[in-house]
Amino acid sequence: MLWTEANAMLAFLQVVIAGLVTGSLYGLLALGIVLIYRTTGVLNFAYGAIGALCAGFLYILITGPQLNFWLALLVTLLFALVVGIVLERGFARPVLHAPVFTKAIATLALALVLETLAQAIWPQLASPQHFFTPFEGKALNLHGLYISAIDIVILVVTALLMLGLNLFLTRTRQGIAMRAMADNIPASRLMGAPVGRIFMVVWALGALVATISAVLLASRQELISVQFMDPVLLLAFVGAVLGGLDSLPGALLGGILIGLADNILGYVLAGHTLGPLNISDPGIRETLIFGGFVLVLLLRPQGLWGRALLRRV
Amino acid sequence: MNESQKTPLLEIRGLTVRFGGLLAINELDLHIAEGEIFALVGPNGAGKTTVLNCINALIKPAAGSIQFAGQELLKQPAYKRAALGIGRTFQQLQLFTSMSVLDNLLTAQHAHLRSGLLMGLLPFGPGKREDARARERARETLALLGLAQYADRPAGSLPFGAQKLIGVARALVLRPRLVLLDEPAAGVPPQEVDELAASLRNWRAELGTTLLLIEHNMHIVQAVADRVCVLDYGSKLAEGEPKAVLSNPAVLEAYLGREASKQVAQAAIEVSQGVSHAES
Amino acid sequence: MASEQTREGELAALDSAGSETQRKTHVNLGQRLYAWRAGLAMLAGLFILGLIPTIYDQIFGFSSGFQLHNLSMIGILIIAALAQNILTGYAAQPSLGNAAFFGVSAYLLTWLTTDLNQPYWVGILLAVLASALLGVIVGGPALRVSGTYLAIATLGLVTIAGALLNLWDTTAGRQDYQLNNLPAFLGDDHALYYFVFIIVVILIFLVYHLLHARVGRAWIAIRDNETAAEAFGINLASYKLQAFVVSAVLTGLAGALYATWAQTASSSMSSLDQTIAFLAMIVVGGLGSITGSVLGAIFVGFIPILLGQLPSPLAVGSFQIQVSILNTGIYGLLLLLALIFFPTGLSSLIGRGGNLLRRVGKRGGTQ
């Protein structure tokens, strides 16, 4: 009796941990999305593609010239910063003055271009490839509870990034300038903030976060392909909006909530059927997650931790 | 003008507005007779625009009543108040910038037109007929204000002065009984202020409109207002004829602060005694 | 009350006085042409549209890819673009949920005609009515949410609809939902073309008048300035809801027509990709413009067709490029370039052309 109860509890805990890990991945992406959104006003739908491009670069470095994983990772992170800056100059600048909707569609177009670019340069990534990491096969066993090495890495990295970003935004001049911009670009320009340079930092930072998320995801799935970030991106957006689009912690928490919901629902529905309907179908899970999301928004239209909107006359 | 009107056109009683913990308007009473030009003045943040916003339903007061022509306004949702005969201009203009000037005035008549989805689909019929009449009314109003040449230009592309006048035209096109003017003299160069004063008196005379204006420019207040009410921190400080109210020491103090108003009072005495004061 | 009577009298006097502001103007050929340009353009357009099937066959024979069949699809896209533009370009509701109406309506039509054996026309009618109802169901709660939140929430609805439609397919054991029981004439490319384009022309006509009537002005007012709109008597909630319903009805019609065109309904009709297509159309063509909707639909509809015509593999110097991979990339690049160079949409080009005519007309009249 006790054995099966303990088993059930273990299994549930396992699911919760998996949910926290998945949630952290969504949350990290959501962090980057909200960062770029709050400072530049652009909803960056190319975010996943940016991460995928850089993660692909890492894969090539490991499989091509057979670089050591950690060295390749370092080079990739630098590459990410460069990609961010290049995109800021080549993409964000030209569309800066377009209406908001146009900018959003432009990021979608950018995503298509980036994906095609990745596929053209590295055609082997058109289909899923095995992603080699030093974390493979290593796991921690706590009285029957398995936590794989990569899961621990994900949780630790997420926490560190969250802290790091927070420090950056509250303690450094760049960060504070970024937060000022989030509220009012013309005003901060008048105060002497180097808006152009800040945009560059934002995009570089954003690309960095996207790359870290992508590498972590690829490591966990042990698979990589050109479009492997696509399914994750929409959920990351949902997490960001759920958290309220107003704060970084909110975004992270929103992502974690989505991750938890995803995993717990998957566990609960597994193998069950409702009449002829196979409710363990991922479609049902998606429906429930998005349905729940819409309901929460109806009850709290500004997101869970967002500020209510004011109207000025 | 109806001087024999016993019930005031606009009657505000006990109006109280709170923003969070801040008491913006404190038990305000105001009566405005039909055909009057009434000015609401006071230092920045005194709550003047808030009063207008309550009449317009952009803000919901915590307590009090606003009666317009005998009807309790606060029971009506915002979009119904235009039909009752209240027009308004805004401090920030708030024009429909992508529309032509003429369309701005057509849209302003929304409350008096009736065509809906089905009538709108047809190129003929009652919808198009009432639109044609509305277009005429719009052109007449533009002509009245000297704006006829702007009729087809996009409202957002015009110089500031013209845009201000369009805001007024928009408020007047339905020939409302009461027009709320939010700082009509703001941004108007000093040499044109007299013109503006004349226009305001003109509209009152020709159209019989009652005007409630918020103003900072004392010159124009003195020139046009029949009565003035001074607000300070949401409460009525003084009310009456412009000359009397504006030389009231309490009013001066509210605007200028105690020390400065003492200086002003002192300067006024010295000037009247023939001593000239040289100030840097 | 006496004052009310004088006011009534005033308004009446103004109405009957006629327009004193109209002056006699010199009418010359240029100005006459300008005034009639709308009518002429329409007639010319209709004439060309009517001739296209014949022209097509002359030029392209029956070469695959440039079939008349594809033009009909563009007509359907025009309807969907109009719908999205009304909701997002005019009434300024960033709702991305139209793809859900698109897919659901297609499935409804297919279900009614194939499984319930109803006549096609009944199916279309019911699908459109159902879309109207869905528009109310979605639009009502949508009033509470705004901006980015509304955008992502409606994206969520598209995902839900897509997932449920897919689930229906899986449960019924099929890949896509085949549409049978079509009236025979709709199987013919020419007939389908005329069918679709007559609907398109009628809809453009109706929508044009709607957007220039009281309802359309209310929508534009809401877009430009909600505060002022309310102050002038516009019931924000009611008009936003009307925009949702009109948009849903048009998109539902487009979805039913699409199922007719493809003779299947697939759950990919309610997907992120479809949403992107809808948005790209109005953004490239021009928000808040009927011409923009048409141009955008042509852009989004034609580019994939043109790209499909490129030889694959393409030889550039000594490189051999698999063009099929590049298709989405080139499409994305063209889209990006269009947005960078025409941030307000391709319809701004037409604006310039119209100005040219105006100047020609004026020059003649000032002598």
Layout of strands and helices, then pairs:
The complex is a heterotrimer of chains A (313), B (280) and C (367).
Chain A lengths: L1 H39 L6 H17 L5 H24 L7 H22 L7 E2 L8 E4 L2 E4 H23 L1 H11 L1 H6 L4 H27 L1 E2 L5 H14 L4 H22 L3 E2 L2 E2 L3 H18 L14
Antiparallel strand pairs in A: 1-4, 2-3, 5-6
Chain B lengths: L9 E10 L2 E11 L4 E5 L6 H9 L6 E6 L2 E2 L5 H4 L4 E3 L12 H8 L8 H5 L4 H19 L15 H13 L5 E5 L7 H18 L2 E5 L3 H7 L2 E6 L2 E6 L1 H5 L2 H8 L1 H15 L8
Helix pairs in contact in B: 3-5, 3-6, 7-8, 10-11
Chain C lengths: L1 H15 L12 H7 L1 H24 L7 H23 L7 H18 L4 H23 L4 H25 L5 E2 L10 H23 L2 H11 L1 H6 L4 H27 L1 E2 L6 H14 L4 H20 L4 E3 L2 E3 L1 H19 L5 H19 L2
Antiparallel strand pairs in C: 1-2, 3-4
Helix pairs in contact in C: 2-3, 2-15, 3-8, 4-8, 4-11, 4-12, 4-13, 5-6, 5-7, 5-11, 6-11, 9-11, 12-13, 13-14
Q: Can you characterise this structure?
A:
The complex is a heterotrimer of chains A (313), B (280) and C (367). With 313 residues, chain A is mostly helical. Helix content of chain A is 71%, strand content 5%. In chain A, the strands form 3 sheets. A two-stranded antiparallel ribbon of chain A has the order 1-4. Chain A has a two-stranded antiparallel ribbon with strand order 2-3. Chain A has a two-stranded antiparallel ribbon with strand order 5-6. Chain A starts with a helix and ends in a 14-residue tail after the last helix. Helix content of chain B is 40%, strand content 21%. Chain B has 11 helices and 10 strands. In chain B, helix 3 (101-108) packs across helix 5 and helix 7 (190-207) runs parallel beside helix 8. The radius of gyration of chain B is 21 Å and the shape is globular. Chain C has 367 residues and is an all-alpha fold. Chain C has a domain at 63-269. In chain C, helix 4 packs antiparallel against helix 11 and helix 5 (98-115) runs parallel beside helix 7. Mean pLDDT of chain C is 82; it is low at 1-26 and 361-367. Chains in contact: A-B, A-C, B-C. At the A-C interface, helix 4, helix 9, strand 6 and helix 11 of A face helix 7, helix 12 and helix 14 of C.
